[in-house]
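Quick one: structure tokens for this chain, please?
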Amino acid sequence: MASDAGGEWVTLAVVIKTQGRRGEVATELHTDVPGRFRQGMRLWVLLKDGERREVTVEDLWPHKSFLVLKFGGIDSLSDAELLVKAELQLPLAERAALEPGWTYLSDLIGCTVFDGAREIGAIEDVQFGAGEAPLLVVKSGAKLPYEIPFAEAFLEKLDLERRQVRMKLPEGLLDVNAKSSGQWPVARRSSERVITDWPLTTGNWFKTGLAMKIDILTIFPDFFRGPLDYGIVRRARETGLVDVGIHDLRAYTKDKHRTVDDRPFGGGEGMVLKPEPIFECLEALGDVASRESRLSASATQSVILLSAQGRRLDQALAAKLSGLERIVLICGRYEGVDERISEHLADREVSIGDYVLSGGELGAAVIVDTVTRLIPGAVGNQNSTRQESFTESLVEADFAGEGARATLTADAGPSSTCVSGGLLDYPHYTRPAEFRGMAVPEVLVNGNHEQIRSWRRKTALAKTLRNRPDLLERVRLTDEDEELLAEIRLELAQGIDIDREG
């Protein structure tokens, strides 16, 4: 029905497209408040023609980077098409209350920005992308407005009572930051995007309390628009389990061209990432523990340089990192990174494999995903993360070296049906029981859990022996395992298909 409600409104989401034949729509969230949408809640839809209608949320679920909503009374594709590009709103008086020290990002609009004593202009817009520090679009006397990163490193004081944002900007930043396009999504004046007054968050996420904090230092911040917006990482961010900040190293350069690399001393091919932007970016984070503290046995933080020369990432290292409070990932580029980063800033170097990538961004995305899914609550059934390939119940492990040897405790053995225990995972099957003449092994459908356990352990051992025999040296095998391995070797010699054997 149409609404006559007046006053100001807050936009919680924008309808992007239709999503099904029953009137469902896919929406882009404009709120950082977790759990903001719920079944039965009342919303107003601001249509393209300016009409505002009241609706009730009948159902909702996440899909890729969207939140899909089904409204009561919107029951067909044609009904849903009328909502595309509409804003989903609440009266401003119902905007979620914030804790002290937190501010709505959209409340910055209209504030005057100062660089030291110099007045730059008024904020006319705030823009953001996934993982980016917000950009203040500041209108001045110039032909084009400025885009100024709203980063902690630049902020001196935020005074909302006087409507002032006082900053200390790097020399030359305004010369290269004139607005060139308007393609980024806009943080509307009435959105529920939030920031903290001090220290500032450097992303577009809500306050996460005891969340793990992950910072990524890179020269390609836009790379992370996709990887952070899907699956387990997205859900962990939305539920406050992990807080990811992306930091553009070019924002910490001093010259007009924002140079981050230079030629290597002693000659040679390629370019090397300079130390200054990396050191200054890390120092601007403000609350990173000292390197000495990070190297101690009681460390709760780690600064990691992604490097082909680093220790190879494995599940044991991922488990270790998932128990930390903060991780900083430095993405290497070009021929390499100035060695002073490794010697005096990072406390470890990590490689995701024995191959060379163009840069550390892919490796950083892998680490974020691998570590996030091990944080309690990130995966629906947390037991599943302990029953996968490479997962061990560790009692002894030297995490400082590549040759870490991990062993299983006697009482940390597999359950009756899930038996990874540091090996490669066993084969999985689901319905239908027979597909195009290919049947599920009989042992999996006979209901005998002891036989299932034994079959899964045997096939896991066989797959590990065949594909990764080195893993057999890292786990403490039981007498039963040794007997099964003897059987496997004999059967392989006889050409028997172990995976199909019941």
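The chain has a mean pLDDT of 80.
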